[in-house]
């Protein structure tokens, strides 16, 4: 047999090693979102039942904000809810909510019963906006910088630890960035 | 104090591992027997020190010493005691320490069980190098003994999904398997260095390969069983990257077990066997690497940290790259003495190896393809079950088609036609099963019926071959049973394992393809019907566990109006971690599992309840047990040789090919 034949496994492994090495330079913790560092998708959502104001892309300009995808049908959202209430009350962070695939009135009743952490709420009954965000499940939270770009995506319920450890430092960092259209 | 002692012991273990790696190698070069023999003492010392370090960490977890970061992050004072112990390895640092402990234990076991030889010394040397790399990894990047000041009052609790008996004992078995392949790897490297891969080498390696394979089989089955009853989605295997990480070494290890046998009996397939030994351990390391680095995200990946990934990558590069370089240099000189006939037992084993390795490659590509796409285009995709069903399953089907006649072929030169003629009644039975299953399960995919037919062909063929060998059709029962004892253990083990595998396949077809699933909202008093059973929701009550709050639903099960039994299912909420788990209510019967889970409550409609009927689900666990048992029985062939170092092949193994 040709000696080169015995080099094939080694060559295959070296090729694989290069792939692994490149793969390692990618941060695996905040997964997908091709939207990171991109401007928010354009949307203009109607208000949910009983609210007067909806939620549109233009509402967030110039401020660091969280956009939280929730639904009255979502169990993990119940777990996340008190944490959001706490963040809204104590940290003064603007939290916008997108009520995802809810039946009319369900979202409103859900908020009446548990309290409303959201300054802005839009109704995404058919889930179109969530598709634009690339949402895979509720709850999901996006952090938006002053220029209206998505800077971070977090899938799953935010817990107090995750907020304190990962998200809060990022929000504070973004607040210190220069804002507005000038920067 | 225990933590400092543990860390100190680990540092000493690193020194002894370095000695174990270097001394026998130098001894072999110089021809210094004493230096070579020192490997055995070093292996024992390293084993003792690692065990002591592990005991120290276990003690810290047992007494909830919250001055240790590791305990704070993974324990809670209210956690049940058994999970305080399993919490030792329910996290990255502790699981790495367990990995190293098992590595050292294998080394020590080898040192005790084998008399001195250059092969043993070199094998221990390779083991020592691997151990040194991983102990250094723990000390430098993942120290489980790190302190925190000031110590918090209580801990953050263990991930509740891991607080479960199945998962508590799953990692030790998995690691016994992964790490066991380090020993076959070390044997392969030692054999390459010495340039003599022969029957004696194969006999030395085989029991260790079997031990690793049996442990990995049990570990994978436990993990799958855990996913089945704890994750509450009614499935048992998701082709999750971490599951694949344990499955790939299993496939390579299964191929290795078979090809080692060829080296032992015929001194053929040497190069291939060595490559498989390297491959099995490489895939084990890649499995570790995959889990530790979070390079592929997964629910299992509990340590997402690229810095550790780089360290593991370096170890991986050194171990796999080094061994493959050695392979490229030395393997061409391995000579096969015997002529190789395609139609023979060894030919059938080579075919089995080709199917297994190709199947392993499809799993590998399916697991890493998303990563490749990410590297190349920056896009993230995921590959799901349809891919694996379309690529992996056909190779398995081919393997099953050849399994029974291949195993019935004689060594050296067999007759395929005779082999099939011998087993034709089972071929007829398999055809009948396929047709009946397709008819009963219509309109579910016919492929599953074919799978069941192949399982009958393979498993039934193994049994039929056994019956023919013990002359069950031509002699009295007593005489036939007497012949069972006379059969070689390797043959008995093989038959049990092949039967077990066939039973697993029937379970997989049943629970994977033929299952029925119904989801509906239920109020108390409502009835949900699945698989011919009616489940009435009697009550939902709230209960408090030690570190969780639960909602418990009790169902009464009826069939045709007749009350049979109660079945309860729970949804648990763990406040410390803010996580929920499901405890599915499962009624296990031979023909299938009735499986109920409780979902969320909505005001109007009631509770979301999912009900499954999973035909033959329990067969998967029984079959897995038989697989492991078969491996164990086959391994008992070896100690005879270990005790009496007979110069010739013992009579028991030599008769096997003759029948």
Describe the overall structure.
The complex is a heterodimer of chains A (183) and B (659). Chain A is α/β, with parallel strands linked by helices. Chain A has a single domain, classed as Glutaredoxin, CATH 3.40.30.10. Helix content of chain A is 36%, strand content 18%. Chain A has five helices and seven strands; from the N terminus they run H-E-E-E-H-E-H-E-H-E-E-H. A five-stranded mixed sheet of chain A has the order 5-4-3-6-7. Chain A has a two-stranded antiparallel ribbon with strand order 1-2. The radius of gyration of chain A is 21 Å and the shape is elongated. Chain B is of the alpha+beta class and 659 residues long. Among the domains of chain B are: 1-163, no CATH class; 516-615. Helices cover 64% and strands 12% of the residues of chain B. Chain B has helices at 2-30, 33-62, 69-74, 81-86, 92-113, 118-141, 165-194, 199-230, 241-266, 270-293, 306-330, 345-377, 385-408, 416-422, 424-441, 446-469, 477-486, 489-512, 617-635, 639-643, 651-654; strands at 516-522, 527-530, 533-544, 549-559, 562-574, 579-583, 585-589, 592-602, 606-615. In chain B, strands 2-3-4-5-6 form a five-stranded antiparallel sheet, with no helix packed on it. A four-stranded antiparallel sheet of chain B has the order 1-9-8-7, covered by helices on one side. In chain B, helix 8 runs antiparallel to helix 9, helix 9 (241-266) packs antiparallel against helix 12 (345-377) and helix 16 packs antiparallel against helix 18 (489-512). The radius of gyration of chain B is 26 Å and the shape is flat. The N and C termini of chain B lie far apart (63 Å). Residues 297-304 and 639-659 of chain B have low confidence and may be disordered.
